[in-house]
Amino acid sequence: MTPSDCLFCAMVRGPEPYSLVHETDAVLALMDIQPVNPGHVLVIPKTHATYLAELEPKLGGEIFEAGMKVATALRRSGVRCEGVNFFLADGAAAGQEVFHVHLHVFPRFEGDGFGLRFGPAYGKRASRNELNRISAQIREAIRE
Hints:
- By secondary structure, the protein is of the alpha+beta class.
- Helices cover 30% and strands 17% of the residues.
């Protein structure tokens, strides 16, 4: 996907409409048109990045900072909000549907019907050897 055919890029440059929640020089926070619950907000960088790996770390921090402001505002806003979830899908296998990095910030309340589904291996404790092996792989990849 390129910025010219990206829905979120069209919102940033216009004319695609959106309902603004918060804006900085680097990010927009806007209402999700398919909300999990009323008050569901998306935080997007104004520059196109398909995946997290394409973001400068500073911009990732600005996205998260805007998400924190939105989460605080949700609790104060009068929108039904007993808790807040952040969700960011990075890649199709993770559930990413719009290929422009975006952080979902949505209010939660008891009985709202939203939940996570876990695979059959969830709940089985990993061995320390397996955890150490995998952590070494990840540490090595961070160094690269």
